[in-house]
Design brief:
Distance between the termini: 22 Å
Number of helices: 10
Largest sheet: 3 strands, antiparallel
Radius of gyration: 18 Å
Strand order of the largest sheet: 1-5-4
Structural class: alpha+beta
């Protein structure tokens, strides 16, 4: 994959469908991330006036809404894309590793809140769950990341603030929801056992990344 170079958002959408599983940023496997595969013109740049541009970052929204894939913090707590073809296997395996949140837990409260509201940006979800005190942000984000790693929360879209001229700015906020709501319950079911799902993903990534070690591939899947 190191020899590939992506020049546009549609090209990245096609690549996600081809490879099935693609981290957004550094995955620990050299050359295996969207960040490393885009051409130089689409990488992060800081201007002399302090402004910045990052086309790849701006592509996330269209990819999530139009690219027939799922986006969330799925890879060691870092964001990435999973095609809808491979989502049932990842969901199947991850949920087997991370059982349903216990009754009365914070994890359950977060999922129930999302189920009630449908979708919320992170700060709205945090407030709705009562995590609005000092120093609560990072603690709450840890719970949400854990639920994303368990394939129980995903990103539906991105919401950006606007200036007085109506122009979007900033890094944007993830609009969070559950995969059952966005994709349907059938997409969260799999005909394979969790171990079979793991083996399918492992063999797929082994073919895709012949230079990666077994440990690196296993870490990516888990």
């Amino acid at each position: 994959m190191r020899d590939m170079e992506i020049h546009s958002c549609p090209e990245l959408m096609d690549l996600i469908q081809e490879v099935g599983i693609l981290p957004l940023l550094d995955s620990g496997i050299r050359g295996y991330s969207a960040e490393e595969l885009v051409d130089e013109d689409n990488r992060y740049v800081v201007f002399d006036d302090g402004g910045w541009d990052w086309p790849l970052w701006k592509w996330k929204g269209p990819i999530v809404t139009e690219g027939h894939c799922v986006y969330g913090k799925f890879f060691a707590g870092k964001a990435g894309f999973v095609s809808k073809d491979w989502w049932p296997d990842l969901c199947n395996y991850r949920r087997a590793l991370r059982p349903v949140p216990v009754e009365g837990s914070i994890d359950e409260a977060i999922l129930l809140t999302l189920a009630e509201h449908g979708s919320l940006i992170t700060r709205e979800l945090r407030a709705a769950c009562g995590f609005d005190g000092p120093k609560m942000r990072s603690k709450f984000d840890g719970y949400v990341t854990r639920l994303q790693m368990a394939c129980r929360i995903i990103t539906e879209d991105f919401v950006y603030p606007t200036d007085k001229h109506g122009r979007e700015y900033g890094w944007g906020w993830s609009l969070l929801t559950t995969p059952e709501r966005l994709l349907g319950r059938e997409m969260c079911r799999c005909e394979h056992t969790p171990q079979e799902s793991f083996e399918r993903m492992f063999e797929h990534l082994r073919r895709l990344l012949p230079e990666a070690t077994d440990k690196q591939i296993t870490k990516l899947i888990k």
